[in-house]
Amino acid sequence: MNGRILKNISNDYLVEANNQIYNCKPRGILRNQNEKPLVGDLVVIDPKKAVIDKIMPRKNFLVRPPVANVDYAVIVMSLVKPDFSANLLDKLILVCEYQGIKPIICFTKIDLNKKDFSDIFNYYQKIGYPIFMNDQLEEFKDFIRNKIVVLAGQSGSGKSTLINKIDPSLNLKTNDISKALGRGKHTTRHTELWKIDDLYILDTPGFSAIDLKEIGTKNIKDYFIEFEKYRNSCEFSNCLHDKEEKCAVKEALNNKEILDSRYQNYLKFMKE
Ligand SMILES: Nc1nc2c(ncn2[C@@H]2O[C@H](COP(=O)(O)OP(=O)(O)OP(=O)(O)O)[C@@H](O)[C@H]2O)c(=O)[nH]1
Ligand SMILES: [Mg+2]
Ligand SMILES: [Zn+2]
What's the number of domains the chain is made of? Predict the structure, then answer.
């Protein structure tokens, strides 16, 4: 029987197959081959023996959180409490691009916000990232239908709240922001793939725990996708868009084609 792994606790895997949940363990041979099944994996199970016989080839996988076959990362960014941070947003986008996962940005707490963020919204949309507000539920659901999405974003940004809005019966634990930030810990502790009708959503802590050193200075510029179209106009083909004199990216920055905070964050990440 074909199924998909929704949850893993030590050596137990909850597999959804034919609209039922089976609690399976990996077959001995998988353990011997050191093939650890991941949440998100498509698998072949033997429901009678309650074992996973085979892991189907993966489209991709993440190390942190350990999940497979992710289509999109939804960066959940609050505008207030915690305050919007262009630095965090750009870092999460960079991590997504590095991991080869397309990001979607979902802004939250618009109801509490008093500032004008239209320049920010427009810019990220212009460079190609889908943008949603967390009250545009139907549009958001249509976009991610039949896809596996992983939620990323700082503690208190509203990830679990977003899932609860999509399916109130899940009633996921959410936390009072002051408590969450004070503890400095995520309220959500486990990686779990929620199947809500034809949506697959991963609520997870720890997506942002990637060391920028892993990415490497030479590559960072390729993950700022809007730099791409200027690159060939820079004087040097390996231009880092930093100290170089004739640089098309810096020119675009001066012409206000590139958002100032994006470029400043780019330089900061290069330093880091
Ligand atoms: N006013 C308002 N409050 C929100 C909104 N979204 C989330 N909240 C509140 O923000 C707090 C934190 O939300 P959570 O959903 O627990 O945040 P989280 O991202 O899951 O946090 P962790 O699990 O700790 O990573 C809760 O008190 C929510 O009720 C929103 O759009 N507007
Ligand atoms: Mg949560
Ligand atoms: Zn350049």
Answer: 3
